[in-house]
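seq/struct pair 1
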Amino acid sequence: MRHISKSKAPLDLIKYLNENPTAKWENFKNEDQVAYKAVCTLIKEDQLGICCYCETDFEISNTSSIKDFRVEHFYPKSETHLPNTQENAHLTWSNLFGCCHGGSMNHIADNRYTNPNLHCDAIKGDNDWTNEILNPLHIPTDAKIFSFEMDGEIVVASECPENLKVLAQQSISKLNLNEESYLMKAREAARQEIATQLDNLIQRGQTMDEALDFLKEALLGETATNMKFYTCKLDYVSY
């Protein structure tokens, strides 16, 4: 998980909500496909193509039209209204994120199908974990929250601010971010690939600092290509 900065709400969403203040998400999807597609597109752009929880990518491959993507309501839409503001939980922009299918869809890709060991929104469902897990909008941009083992396990970083440690640990456990058959293996592979590239650069005569600087620039620029497991990769090249 990492901080997400949201753009201004799509005008089509605002217009629909103004005209239909009590509408549910299903109404919105069925009645205004233009606005719905605009919402999905901007969510993907804001998150640079990765799940708000596990940081896997929404794209299966460059040639596949199938996306490992769905819209997540951080505060459950089944509760209808946000607790503090009484805004419509179904359609309030700050409550909408993009997440993967959490291993629940067997047509997505064989290595991503982890059922019954689900993760992310697939396990969160309609549970109200608002005060029990990290909200991506509120994760500090300048704090290290998580660290990663070489086998891909995510743990709470020793540098994590004290006031966030419980939320960070509960985010890992409740969202099952250490799901073993896909998430941990995929993060392990990402770290091993970086380790191989680092060794190659050093063998070519670069110093450790030069090699790390090169990898940071090559792998961690904020583009959709680089974002998959961003926090995991950043942890490795920033030690």
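seq/struct pair 2
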Amino acid sequence: MQNLLEDLDRGDGALAIRQADLDFFRIGENLATTPGKVVFQNEIMQLIQYAPTTEEVARRPLLIFPPWINKFYILDMQPANSFIRWMVDQGRTVFVVSWVNPGPELRHKTFEDYIRQGLFEALDAVNRATGEETVDAIGYCIGGTMLATGLALMAKRGDERVKSATFFTAQTDFSEAGDLLLFDDDAQLEAIEKQMDAAGGGLEGRAMATTFNMLRSNDLIWSFVIDNYMKGKPPAKFDLLYWNSDATRMPKGVHLFYLREFYQKNRLAKGGMTIDGELISLADVKIPVFMQAGETDHIAPAKSVYNSAKLFGGPDHSSVTYMLAGSGHIAGVINPPSKNKYHHSINPALPEKMEEWVAGAEKHPGSWWRYWMDWLDNVSPGRVRA
């Protein structure tokens, strides 16, 4: 009963179920501890550059765009499972965008603003920090959708600053986007818009987190109802679930564009999306592309990511690599080699249907990170002093 009352109080009358011990973790103390500093900021993001740990590094910097639905430190939880720390140790100069948690003053920001101020201004800042004119880029979830859209715009304009792109559980074709398609009809979108207007022009992070939790309610709702309220257990000290509870708001204009133009109308996949006055197509993106998907991903289903992979690189898709990791949207990505968990399947071909790809794939035990690093080293050669 005490746990229940505390969660009701914390949610201002709504039930805000604790998934983890919210007092145990401290950002910068026992989470997000890889040394780095903010080298640039504007009104929608800060750009963090991480300190090198090797004497030499790859010539081309690595620029990462996490989702703006959650905090960036999913990629830098604790030293043992930090993707960022692992990448620095592999000799990469790593930059990560940390998106703002927007208030009402940013309610009119658009998806195009996130491309201009998020992608393009980050590219400019990396150039100022390193002197390098090109980067390798990573986009995670909606950060990947933004990156792909930006790359199509850059291809249309002949902007070649991004030389390779890796996508973590990111969609560009939403025709088979799973259970989230339940929320894309006009009545639902009008209700979400009213909810955002009432909240000052943004979607509260807790609302989106609840939606995602409902997609896996046995794991992310009812297990905690049983443990917290029926058994009276204290919340677990679990870094991933702490991060899952640390959601952020989204500006109204950005979120409605995402839901209407991508989920509802699927314009990018259909070649009908106009960004900054340009009609764009992912077929124009001919740089090396690596698409990672998770077998049990309920937010970006593996088949949806496969369909997305087939949009890049023109008719033969020769520049595209698709890889299927064990587990889901988070654990399928954050799977360091030292843990020796799960598995990953590889197949250099990209046939018409995913079922054909699976039939011809080779399954390997453990993390996919080293396989991807070999791919990155191949498309991003050259070394310089750190």
